[in-house]
Structure to design on (1008 residues):
C-alpha cells in the first residue's frame, strides 16, 4: 500500500522515520508547513521535532523556529511545537489554544496576515529566506510530481522557495482526491504579472499536481493519520435567526434586481453561523448556486448533496468527522464539482472582485460606525487572526459580517461604541447581521450607520446605553462625521477587563 | 471658437445659459458631477444651481441634493453648493473647507468611499438612482462622442447611468488633451466580468472618448474657466528629509534584489510630501520610471521633463497654476506619455496588484502597531476622505505611509498609542516614514512593530512617553499580541481636544 503512494524510486529511497527527518531541521531556521484549517498539515515530523526541541531545551540548548503555514493546523503541529516552546515567530494564522496562550503572554511573535498576500510576499523576499518545507501530500507520482492532500494553502510556494523539502505521504488521505486540485503556475513577480485567467468559480487554470524537484527532497515520511476534523455543534437559535435574516436579505436583493436569482459565488467563513447559513440555503428558493471560498465546510457539502450548490472552489476542507467520512465514501462523485486551489488564488483580490463574491464572515464585534474587529478580544488579546476576511470583504460584491449580538451569556455586547481593534474599516462592511436583525449600511454616512446598527443589530440589554452614548456623542464629539467620545469609547471594554461584564 | 468645440448640430441646439440648465434639476434629486482633485469639474451650472437653491430657500422652499463626484472639486461646486446649504448627502470624497465644516457640524451626510468602488456600486444599484449627470468636457465630436476634460473620474458611469445629462463644454481646456484619455468600456456586472487587459502602466485598453446618447443630453453650457489649480508650497525641510529616507529605502531594496532598478510603477498621493519625493527622484539613481497613480501632480511632470519618468497613468491632473501653464504649452508632447483613465481602472485592485505599484500615501497619524488614520482628526472630525489610499495600500507591492512626526508646531504627535480612527489596518502598512526615519514593518509582529515605529519614526519630544506607554502596556495589557491600555489609549487625543496640545 505504501509503495503505491510513492511512485518514484529515488524518493522511495528517502523514506525515513519522522524522528530522523526532524534532525534535518536546524535551530533558528524557518520552516514552511502545509496545513489549512486543520486539513493537510504534516502530522509526524512536527511531533518528532517537538520532542527533539524538548530534549535540546532540557540539555540547555536553545532551539526555536520560525513557522509559516497556510492557515491553522492541528494539535500535532502548532500545539506540539508551542508546548515545546519551539516557535519563535509564527505566520499567517493560528487557532491553536496553546500557541494562542503563548502569543497572548508575549512569549511568541505572531503576525496574522491577509492570506492572499503570504505567497507574494514570500516571493518578494519580504519575509526572509525559507529553509525547509514540510508538506503533507497524498501521494508521489512516478514523475516526481506530488498529489496534494486535503488542503493546498501555500504549499506550491513553500516547495518552490525552500532550500529543502520534507514530504509526509499520508495514506489516510483518500486516493480519489487526485484530480481535484488546480495548481496555478502562472504567477510571477512584477513587472511580469499577467491576468489570472479565471472567470468562473469552477474554472481550472492550472495543474492537478505540485511540481517538485526530487533533488530538493531530503526526506519522505509515511503516515496514516486523520486530519483534525473537529465536530461542529448544531446551530443554535441565534445562528438560525442570523441565517434567517440573511436569507430574507438575499430574497429582497433578488426581488430588487440587485442580485441574480442564483445569487453570486458564495464565500463563507468558518464556524457555526456559516454552517447555519448553508443549512438555511438548503431549504431556500435559490438554485444553481456556486461557491468561491477559502474553506469547504459541512454546510457547503450538504448544500451540494441537496442539489442546490453546483460547484465550489476553495483552498482546503474543514469538515466534521461525519462529513469527512461522507466525503471519503463518495469522493469520486464530489471530485468533479470541487476545486482546491493555492490560497493565493482562492483569496486573490483580482478574482474575488471579478467574480463578485458574496462575502459572509464572522466577527468579534462591530462598532456603531460599522468598523469590525475580527481578531482581538478587548483590543489586545488575539483570538485567531484576520485570515482571508480582508481579502474577501474589500473585494466582494457585498460584504456581510455576522455574530450573535452578545457573547459570554450577555456579558459582552457585539455592538460597541468603538472597536478597540479594527480589521475591517467601515467602507468594507456593507451588511451587519445579528440575531436581532440586519443593518444595510450601503451608501450611508457614519451618522446614519450608527442609527441603523444600534436599532437593528444591538441587543435590547445594551441598546439604551448605545443610544445614550450616540446622543451624547452627537452633542459633545470634537467632529460630527463619526461622533465619538474619546474618554469613554472603550469604557465597556475596560469594565469587562476589570469585572468580567461590560454592563455597569 | 465655441462652435468648433460642439461638433454635433443637435447638441449645438441645446446650448443654453447655466441658469437655464440649473432649472432642469429637481429638488431632492441625485446629481453625478465630473471633477477630481480640482480638475475637470463643472464650473457654471453648480454656481447657478447654488443661486437657485438660495432663492428657493429664501422663498421657504426646501431644496437639497445628493451629490456624487469623482473626488474633490472646486469652490464653484462643493463650496458654492455647501454654502447654499444645497447638499444633503455627498460621496465619495471632499476637500472643500465649507463643505467640511458643514459635515463636521453634522449638517451634511458624507460617505467617503474607496474610489475604485464608486462606479461598481453605482452599477450594482447600491447607491440609489442617479437622476442627472453634469459633466465638463473639452469638446463634443460630430458623432456625439465627448472629448474628456482634465479629469476622467466617474464620468463614464455618470453619463451611462443618469436619466439626463448636462454638459459643460469648457474652452479653457487645451484642445490637445484629445487623445490622452483611455476610456475602458469592458466593465460589467458579475457574473459577466472578465480580466482587465492592462499589463503595463501605459497600455491603452479603451477609447479616447465618452460614448453618450445625444437624446439624453438636456443642456449644453459653454464655459471658459480654469481648473482650481492651487499653488503648491515648496517642500519644507521635513518633507525633504522624508523623501531622503524613502530614496535610501529604494536604493537598499534595489541592492537587496527586492525591487528592480527602475523600481515599479509609482503611486503617489496628493500633497507636498509626494511632490518632495518626486523632486528627490529627479536627482536619484533610478531611470526609466513609470507611474500608475490617481493624480498627476507637479512633481510627476517635473520627473518626466527630467527624463526620469517614461510614462504615467492617472485619472486626473492636480497642478499648480505654473505647472498647468507649462503643461498647456507643451500638451502635444506630453499627451503620448500620459494616460487619463476612469478612476475605476486607475484604482482597480486587480490592476494595482498585477502591476505591483509602490504606494506612497500621506497620513494624519499612525499608532504604535502601525494602524494608520488618514481621515479623522481626533477620531471624529473628517479632514478629506480615504480617497484611493485603500485601493492602493492593500494591493501594492509595498505600501508606504508618510508624514512629519508632529503637526501644529509640535502640539500633535503623528505617532500615537492608538489611532482613534483606522483607515489602514496594520497589515496594509509596510513602511512608515517621518522626518525622524523609516520603519520597515514587513514580517514583524505588532509587538516588534511598536518598538521599531517608536524608535525610528516618533519625535524625540514624544518618544519617552511612547516608550513608557509601551512598557506599561507590555506589563498590564489584557493580551500581549497588541499591547494596549484601554483607559489611556486616547488620552493624548482627549488632552488635545481639551487643551489644544497633546503634551501633558
Amino acid at each position: 500500500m505504501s509503495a503505491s503512494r510513492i511512485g518514484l524510486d529515488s524518493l522511495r529511497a528517502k523514506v525515513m522515520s519522522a524522528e530522523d527527518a526532524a534532525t534535518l531541521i536546524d535551530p533558528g531556521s524557518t520552516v514552511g508547513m502545509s496545513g489549512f484549517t486543520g486539513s493537510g498539515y504534516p502530522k509526524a515530523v512536527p511531533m518528532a521535532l517537538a520532542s527533539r526541541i524538548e530534549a535540546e531545551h532540557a540539555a540547555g540548548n536553545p532551539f526555536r523556529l520560525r513557522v509559516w503555514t497556510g492557515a491553522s493546523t492541528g494539535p500535532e503541529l502548532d500545539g506540539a511545537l508551542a508546548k515545546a516552546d519551539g516557535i519563535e515567530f509564527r505566520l499567517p494564522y493560528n487557532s491553536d489554544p496553546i500557541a494562542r496562550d503563548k502569543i497572548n503572554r508575549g512569549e511568541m511573535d505572531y503576525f496574522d496576515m491577509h492570506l492572499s498576500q503570504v505567497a507574494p510576499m514570500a516571493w518578494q523576499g519580504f519575509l526572509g529566506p525559507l529553509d525547509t518545507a514540510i508538506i503533507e501530500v497524498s501521494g508521489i507520482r512516478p514523475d516526481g510530481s506530488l498529489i496534494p492532500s486535503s488542503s493546498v494553502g501555500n504549499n506550491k510556494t513553500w516547495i518552490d522557495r525552500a532550500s529543502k523539502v520534507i514530504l509526509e505521504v499520508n495514506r489516510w488521505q483518500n486516493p480519489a482526491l487526485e484530480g481535484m486540485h488546480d495548481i496555478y503556475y502562472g504567477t510571477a513577480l512584477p513587472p511580469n504579472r499577467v491576468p489570472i485567467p479565471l472567470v468562473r468559480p469552477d474554472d481550472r487554470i492550472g495543474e492537478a499536481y505540485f511540481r517538485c524537484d526530487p533533488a530538493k527532497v531530503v526526506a519522505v515520511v509515511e503516515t496514516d493519520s486523520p486530519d483534525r476534523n473537529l465536530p461542529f455543534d448544531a446551530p443554535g437559535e441565534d445562528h438560525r435567526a442570523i441565517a434567517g435574516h440573511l436569507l430574507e436579505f438575499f430574497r429582497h436583493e433578488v426581488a430588487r434586481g440587485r442580485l441574480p436569482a442564483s445569487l453570486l459565488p458564495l464565500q463563507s467563513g468558518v464556524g457555526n453561523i456559516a454552517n447555519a447559513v448553508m443549512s438555511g440555503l438548503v431549504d431556500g428558493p435559490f438554485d444553481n448556486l456556486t461557491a468561491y471560498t477559502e474553506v469547504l465546510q459541512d454546510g457547503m457539502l450538504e448544500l451540494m448533496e441537496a442539489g442546490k450548490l453546483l460547484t465550489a472552489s476553495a483552498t482546503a476542507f474543514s469538515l466534521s468527522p461525519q462529513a469527512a467520512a461522507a466525503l471519503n465514501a463518495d469522493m469520486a462523485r464530489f471530485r468533479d464539482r470541487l476545486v482546491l486551489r493555492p490560497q493565493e488564488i482562492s483569496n486573490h483580490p483580482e478574482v474575488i472582485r471579478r467574480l463578485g463574491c458574496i462575502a459572509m464572515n464572522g466577527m468579534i464585534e462591530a462598532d456603531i460606525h460599522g468598523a469590525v474587529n475580527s481578531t482581538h478580544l478587548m483590543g489586545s488579546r488575539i483570538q485567531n487572526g484576520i485570515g482571508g476576511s480582508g481579502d474577501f470583504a474589500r473585494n466582494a460584491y457585498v460584504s456581510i459580517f455576522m455574530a450573535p449580538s452578545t457573547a459570554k451569556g450577555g456579558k459582552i455586547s457585539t455592538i460597541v461604541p468603538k472597536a478597540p481593534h479594527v480589521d475591517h474599516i467601515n467602507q468594507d462592511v456593507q451588511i451587519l447581521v445579528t440575531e436581532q436583525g440586519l443593518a444595510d449600511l450601503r451608501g450611508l454616512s457614519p451618522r446614519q450607520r450608527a442609527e441603523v446598527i444600534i436599532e437593528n443589530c444591538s441587543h435590547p440589554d445594551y441598546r439604551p446605553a448605545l443610544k445614550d452614548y450616540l446622543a451624547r456623542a452627537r452633542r459633545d464629539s470634537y467632529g460630527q462625521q463619526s461622533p465619538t467620545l474619546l474618554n469613554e469609547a472603550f469604557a465597556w471594554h475596560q469594565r469587562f477587563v476589570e469585572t468580567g461584564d461590560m454592563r455597569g
Remarks:
- Chain A touches chain B through 89 residues (CB under 8 Å).
- Chain A has a mean pLDDT of 97.
